[in-house]
Amino acid sequence: MMSNPYRSFTTMLTAFVVIFGVLLSAVSYWFISHELIGETSGLTRDAVEEYISGLPDAEMLFKKPPSDKTVAGQTDASQVETNSRANEEELTANIHAAFDPYGIRQIRFMGQGAQVWFSYSPANIGLALTGHDRVRFDRVMDEGSMLTAKKTTVLNLWIPIRSAEGTLIGVAEVSKDWSAQSAKIFKISLTIVLLVAAGMTILFFSLRHIFLRSSRVIESQNKELSDMLDRVHRTYDESLQAMSSALDSRDNETQGHSLRVTAYAWLLGKQMGIEGEELEMLYRGALLHDVGKIGIPDAILRKEGPLDEMEWAIMRTHVNMGVRMLAHIEFLGPALDVVRYHHERWDGLGYPDGLSGEQIPICARIFAVCDTYDAITSDRPYRASKSHETALAELSRFAGSQFCPAVVEAFMKLPPDTLQRVREMSQQDIQFLSLDELLPKVV
């Protein structure tokens, strides 16, 4: 089954092929029709002009016939009328003989006054042109060039006629049967459409095949790259966990502390709606929060009794020391908020910068609550661990002074049995337990 990108590409390619094919067919039809009309019009015009130029008195077709009483001395009106009708019939027969082979079905000759002086339809003779016919007539007379108009199966040509001296004497309107040419154009166009359709079909399946093959290659490469990045991230996190475990092993008070507090922070971050990259940075910052303690002397770090004022001053340097250690690692940049600010207090009495309230980054505020919870519920050389309820009471008591009230409230909503599972699992051999194994089991 094709995925959305494949379906989208196929739809777009199909639309392109159909639209291109229709446009190409339409353009081909127009071009063929235009060329054939031009050629046919030219041949018809030449035939009409050649016929008229061969008449002894061509101008008689474009002026009013002489009156019955003035015909070459004739005085018998009936004889004149008979002779005139015979002449007209002979002229009509000659014109039919000349133009019928060209498919001309109607012809009219109009003089300069826009009146019809010859027509296959006798009823039109003597009538003045009106409407569109008059507009076409005037245009041809003004411009002196042929005008072409096609209506379904009829091709109308308005041809300017000149005398032997080159004077414009009138216009011949020719109505030519276009059905044979239309059928020919249709056959040619249909052939082109079929060829275009075949070509477009071949092009469609060729491009689709190339796209699918390329997409599979790209998809495979992307998967390999994604797997490689996942391995790199796992390697990063495994290295961080190894560093954190090494630090915990050095500190008598914090055996398993980084593992637990990172799990608590991850759970609390999700509880507060943090996700994606920000949750990852909270995870890594929690894991490395005390990395600066690597630079604290063992005499202070492993001292079993309370620290004096000088020793506390040295201990507090672990924050800036940790930041300096990690600052040059680009991908850990956002995680430094936890390392730098996890000892700040909501009331501004913390260190190293004395930030207060929402000046403290949210990840650092989350971690501070989790760090204190773990400190209360873990065994220390100088006191035993306290219960979950006692820890929650302590957090509630210092909400608004040491801790962010909203973070404490969210922590209260974490299931106690989930927090208990974290504590129990952290008691396993730290050397063989990782957060990747712990987190899925406690959610």
Could you give a quick summary of the protein structure above?
The chain has 443 residues and is α+β, with helices and mostly antiparallel strands. Helix content is 60%, strand content 8%.
Describe the SSE topology.
Elements: H1 4-53, H2 77-99, E1 104-111, E2 116-119, H3 131-143, E3 147-151, E4 154-162, E5 168-177, H4 179-250, H5 257-271, H6 276-287, H7 298-301, H8 309-316, H9 318-326, H10 336-341, H11 362-377, H12 388-398, H13 405-412, H14 416-426, H15 435-442
Antiparallel strand pairs: 1-2, 1-5, 3-4, 4-5
Helix pairs in contact: 1-4, 5-6, 5-11, 5-14, 11-12, 14-15
Q: Superfamily at the CATH H level of the largest domain?
A: Hypothetical protein af1432
Helix and strand content put the structural class at: alpha+beta
* Main sheet: strand order: 2-1-5-4-3
Main β-sheet: number of strands, strand sense, barrel status?
5 strands, antiparallel
**What is the total tally of β strands?**
5
Radius of gyration: 50 Å
Low-pLDDT segments: 68-75
Domain HD-GYP: 232-427
Protein name: HD-GYP domain-containing protein
Biased composition (Polar residues): 72-85
GO molecular function, one term: hydrolase activity
